[in-house]
Amino acid sequence: MKTLSEIRNNIEHCRNTDNLGCITLTEYRDKANVEGASHPVLFQTVSRAKIMLIGAEPGSIDADTSKAVYQSLVNAQFSLGHKSAVGLGEIMMRVGKIRQINLPLDITRIPITEDVQNKHLLARERLGLHITNLVKCHAPTSWETDCSKDWQFVANACTSRHLMNEIEAIDPPMIILLGQQVLDYVAKRESWAMRRKDLKISTWAANQAGYLRCFGKERFVTAWAHPGGNYFSIPKQGKMHWDLYAKQIAAFVR
């Protein structure tokens, strides 16, 4: 079994020349002075993590974020975008109340300062959250919008080369799929034992979350609206799920 350090090193030096989509991404990330693309955005782990959150891919820079600020987040392997971090912060605060764990209030603000980033990481440390993505490289806009087939190829490559090793190393009893794109991708993979049609991210956590025989072990698998997506920020639709999401995490907090 590979250690997380070995997995991190493999991701950093990954050059998958068997996959044209991967070549596109590695060339893009290696170009000098490309915002947010100087190297892959790695997973963000904590010690003794038992809850794994899986997004689709590292996102683009928020419109209100400078290159310097974003690059500092990337360099720190802070793999959540600003909106995502705020949304996750809201959920973590609810988990803290349920389990009576004191968490920094700052984690519900946009984490543009090093101090808030560190507090956000501290909160995830206390709750045991490991954050990662199916695809490990930030994609250029043209690749994101017009290359869904390439995305599938890259996701397959990253899953077999990196994500499966992460799951084996972490051995999480709980896995959270973030967003419809990830849910759709995972549902088609035999190793996840889902094999269902018409899966809706808006209802999965409430109606379909449960234990699946995933990668050789029974794991609790749920799917959430992405904390950085538009759906998540609509009060009557997105935020109504925050307490449900918090209860699901709270059950697995060590």
Give an overview in words:
The protein has 254 residues and is an alpha/beta fold. 45% of the residues lie in helices and 11% in strands. A five-stranded mixed beta sheet has the order 2-1-3-5-4, with helices on both faces. The model is unreliable at 32-39, 61-66 and 73-78 (pLDDT under 50).
Blueprint (SSEs and pairs):
Layout: H1 4-12, H2 20-30, E1 51-55, H3 67-75, H4 82-99, H5 114-127, E2 129-133, H6 141-146, H7 148-170, E3 174-178, H8 180-187, H9 201-207, E4 210-214, E5 217-224, H10 242-250
Parallel strand pairs: 1-2, 1-3, 3-5
Antiparallel strand pairs: 4-5
Any key phrases for this structure?
alpha/beta, 5-stranded mixed beta sheet, 11% strand, 254 residues
The biggest beta sheet, please?
5 strands, mixed
What strand order characterises the main sheet? 2-1-3-5-4
Provide the gyration radius in Å: 17 Å
H/E element order? HHEHHHEHHEHHEEH
Mean pLDDT: 78
The proportion of strand residues reads: 5-15%
Counting DSSP E segments of at least 2 residues, the number of strands comes to 5
Large-scale geometry = globular
Protein structure class: alpha/beta
What percent of residues adopt helix (DSSP H or I)? 40-55%
Distance between the termini: 23 Å
Note the total helix count: 10
Q: Give the low-confidence spans.
A: 32-39, 61-66, 73-78
